[in-house]
Amino acid sequence: MRHYFNRMIQRVLSSAALLLVIVMGMLGPVQAAETIEVESFWLRESVPGAENGAGFGEIRNTGSEDVSIVAAESPIASSLELHQHVHRHNGQMAMEQLDALVIPAGGSVTLQPGGYHLMLMQLKSPLRVGQSHTLELRLSTGETLTVEAEVHPLVR
Ligand SMILES: [Cu+2]
């Protein structure tokens, strides 16, 4: 009888442990998603003949752990890339692709012309002022952040 009772306790405990693992697994990512905020994201109007587009905005991390943007996609482009503008030694500006963009804990990163930006490769149609498009940002936590971005004129 005592043996049976011990086994029952053991089973209850292992179920509780399993449940705890499941609950923690569900809480972790949800918390992370809530800590990433995207502020006024926008896309630049296409110039005639341009194949690619660019997206800008501010990404804030109110959490206590760094979170990275590891990929992005949108139905309006074949692929999206994270880019950075860099000054070459010859004084020219060039774009460099990043594997990930780290949004530091308690900090923010601003994507803006001449700096970090989201590059929309091979647009399916030109970006026109007044349109709004959906972008999906993949986070290092495994989650996806959906962002609505309005198209703004080249000069603001
Ligand atoms: Cu670029």
From TrEMBL:
<dbReference type="InterPro" id="IPR058248">
    <property type="entry name" value="Lxx211020-like"/>
</dbReference>
<feature type="signal peptide">
    <location>
        <begin position="1"/>
        <end position="32"/>
    </location>
</feature>
<dbReference type="InterPro" id="IPR007410">
    <property type="entry name" value="LpqE-like"/>
</dbReference>
<protein>
    <recommendedName>
        <fullName>Copper chaperone PCu(A)C</fullName>
    </recommendedName>
</protein>
<keyword id="KW-0732">Signal</keyword>
<dbReference type="InterPro" id="IPR036182">
    <property type="entry name" value="PCuAC_sf"/>
</dbReference>
<dbReference type="Pfam" id="PF04314">
    <property type="entry name" value="PCuAC"/>
</dbReference>
